[in-house]
Amino acid sequence: MEIIFLGTGGTMPSALRGLPSIAVRRDGEILLFDCGEGTQRAMAKARLGFRRPMRIFITHLHGDHVLGLPGLIQTMNLLGRERPLHIYGPRGLGGFLEAVSRFISPPEFPLIIHRVHRGVIHRGEDYRVEAVEAEHEGECWSYAIIEDPRPGKFHPERARRLGVPEGPLWKRLQRGEDITLSDGRVVRSRDVVDPPRRGRRIIYSGDTRPNRRLIELARGADVLIHEATFDEGLRDRAIRDGHSTAREAAEAAAQAGVKLLVLTHISARYPDPKPLLEEARSIFPKVLVAEDLMTLRVPLSDEPAET
Hints:
Blueprint: E1 2-7, E2 21-26, E3 29-33, H1 39-45, E4 54-57, H2 63-66, H3 69-78, E5 85-89, H4 93-101, E6 111-115, E7 119-123, E8 127-133, E9 141-147, H5 156-161, H6 168-174, E10 179-180, E11 186-187, H7 189-192, E12 201-204, H8 212-217, E13 223-227, H9 235-241, H10 246-256, E14 261-264, H11 274-281, E15 287-289, E16 294-297
Parallel strand pairs: 3-4, 4-5, 5-6, 12-13, 13-14, 14-15
Antiparallel strand pairs: 1-2, 1-16, 2-3, 7-8, 8-9, 9-12, 10-11
Helix pairs in contact: 10-11
């Protein structure tokens, strides 16, 4: 699983940063979070493709998070996309896209709009996407990608010692089934398979003030992608505008016990984000500042799943 940061600025683009958009590439599928102006160009640079399986999750309807959708849909038309495109977002998203379609080509492929609610909003084959309310102007959401637990490690030497012949019975044990051998002995899956291993967990805050809902969603996450629009010197501005400082993002990461914090939605007033990085690291050491087209690989974990 890879995270590709397509746009890492906020409010307006700068010479160094595009507007918010983050792609998660997982098993051939793209999960796109926000779609600011310029997203399709960044996708082309990242070689993500426009016809593959894709779902888009919009945090809110401010222009810097949504104005890339019309161009992206038009490009998909031009390239002959046929697959359905599912887009999730707040109230008004469907009306926005319908209004835009009156003036540019409407989608020539199935476009399915989903109204976001708190809780699980999409269930994939072995993962889910959850949403909680953010604290920002109007309806706004934070999202999580949460993988299902993976089967524990299978120990073939234990199976052989117990007399289990290699083949279909091994597969059943790996799937968690107990089996009965031809001599009547029962071999339990737990005798040859370690406990399930936890799936990966990636959190995207969207635009928000720090809040308990987000911290609980991010509990123990592999990666927390948290907006850090301002530094502490502008905390009053952050409170007024519904944003977070780098220090506040780091405090949230520490409270949630995440493995890595990535700061994004960087204001154009910081051409050098070093002050934001240093501010966050004074609270939480494992932190990066996202840059456009930065790719972050999220490795599988061998930690046991929560019980």
